[in-house]
Write a structure and sequence with these properties.
- The structure is a homodimer of 239-residue chains.
- With 239 residues, chain A is of the alpha+beta class.
- Chain A folds into 2 domains: 146 residues, Alpha-Beta Complex (Nucleoside Triphosphate Pyrophosphohydrolase), CATH 3.90.79; 60 residues, Arc Repressor Mutant, subunit A (Orthogonal Bundle), CATH 1.10.10.
- Helices cover 29% and strands 27% of the residues of chain A.
- In chain A, the strands form 2 sheets. In chain A, strands 1, 2, 3, 4, 5, 6 and 7 form a 7-stranded mixed β-sheet that branches. A 3-stranded antiparallel β-sheet of chain A has the order 8-10-9.
- In chain A, a hairpin with a 2-residue loop joins strand 1 and strand 2.
- The termini of chain A are far apart.
- At the A-B interface, helix 1 and strand 5 of A face helix 1 and strand 5 of B.
- The structure holds a DNA duplex (27 and 27 nucleotides).
DNA sequence: GGAATAGTGTCTGTAAGACACTATTTC
DNA sequence: GAAATAGTGTCTTACAGACACTATTCC
């Protein structure tokens, strides 16, 4: 019979075989009329020189959680932490990494292209890749599957929340929001329905300014400080 | 410059410090008018003799995924694999396990009490605990937080799907379904609304039999083979 | 027949879809 | 004023809530 203190004193984590653990992120943005995902060219084996999701190992000394790991890795690649970052799921198995049994906890994130672009310009190993060019490209590990799962989640959430605002800069117009939503859903939405939900969400406030994106000047909005995502009890129609 | 083959030949996973990785499950059932969760009394340090979620280490030789680990561990505790088992999320950090930085991938599952009970009867280290008695009880690790997250997910899904059927035996009546839904939501639901959704889901078929649970005999239903969960585009009203 | 549970009919309420309408701005 | 985009009014539609009604079964 040992006490917990004695047990912990003698505990050696290397005695237990452990899977290889990583954290990866699917960072989306909308740019040039297309939904894009951030990819990084791998600088190490395995899958050296192939494109894959930005991610890496947990820093056990400094990371307070896998979310912290995801934030750190994204900051390394883009210079910023995206305004929306949430856990997607974990993917695991003996085959997905040639080094052996592995587990990756995946986060999915959104950012405005403009808020990220200055940092990744001229960096040849990080790129925004439109989702429709991913069909042909061969991604490292099971990252193709992961991106598809993230896309599905993004579309689901877009149907019952205002999540896509995180693809926009701090100040934005309703038309810009409508555009990113339609790009994400690959589907037009009723402007009137969008406006009703936009108001009902109580997540946004007018800046007071108006900008001319098209003909008539549009109101500028920003997210209210400290309010969290409103989930609607009905979905927008998809198909 | 090494090839990937050379790299893999020389790769030693022990060179990378790794978090402690476990898999845990939140298995729900409804029994005695209450939502219950399966707990196991810990046979090892840390938290020896305290109650916690059933789970454990991945068997790198035999488990094809963390889902397989969850299934194996639940089969060890209950003798069966529950009819519904899906990933909830992963929880991680340096503080949640006294042995050090740890990560647990958590699954949440549903089963009919009758389909499980024969196996855990007379086993003193596994028990169904009503959720309302969990407030007082001190669970191992961060398992209290995890159960709360699982409960939230269960309620969400109950609002837009027929998920609670997995708390019922293979053949069940509408009244039984209504009962488990109301227990999960802590809230009555309109029988008529439930019936409309039940029909619309196209997930079920009549067995042809009728049983007397109350006065008038009720139709028996079973899940159609091979159909998957239908998600409704509206939520049931909660509050 | 009365009590209890199973199941139906149907009206109301809410929020999305559809789409015509008005408003503002640039040319 | 024409064209284009921003924003409104309002009718329709889908489906959940409410609740009274009928049906079946046991005593």
């Amino acid at each position: 019979m040992t006490t917990q203190a004695e047990y912990l004193k003698n505990y050696d984590p290397r005695l237990f075989p452990s899977p290889l653990v990583t954290v990866d992120s699917v960072l989306f943005t909308v740019h040039g009329g297309k939904l894009c995902v951030l990819l990084a060219k791998r600088a190490n084996h395995p899958f050296l020189d192939q494109w894959g999701l930005p991610g890496g190992f947990i820093d056990l000394q400094h990371d307070a959680s896998t979310q912290a790991t995801a934030e750190r890795k994204l900051r390394e690649k883009t210079g910023v932490v995206p305004p929306y970052l949430a856990q997607l799921a974990s993917f695991s198995g003996p085959e997905r990494d040639p080094r052996g049994w592995s587990l990756t906890t995946v986060y999915f994130a959104l950012i405005a292209h403009a808020d990220c672009q200055p940092h990744i310009i001229d960096v040849s190993d990080v790129a925004w890749v439109p989702l429709d060019s991913l069909q042909t490209q061969q991604l490292a590990f099971d990252h193709q599957t992961i991106v598809e799962a993230a896309l599905q989640r993004l579309r689901q959430k877009t149907a019952y929340s205002m999540l896509p605002v995180y693809c926009l800069p701090a100040e934005f117009t309703l038309s810009q929001l409508q555009e990113v939503i339609e790009i994400i859903l690959s589907h037009t939405v009723q402007r009137k329905s969008l406006m009703r939900r936009f108001d009902a969400s109580e997540m946004f406030e007018e800046t007071g300014e108006r900008v001319a994106t098209g003909a008539r000047k549009a109101r500028l909005y920003r997210r209210k400080a400290g309010v969290d995502m409103r989930n609607f009890s009905r979905n927008l129609m998809v198909e």
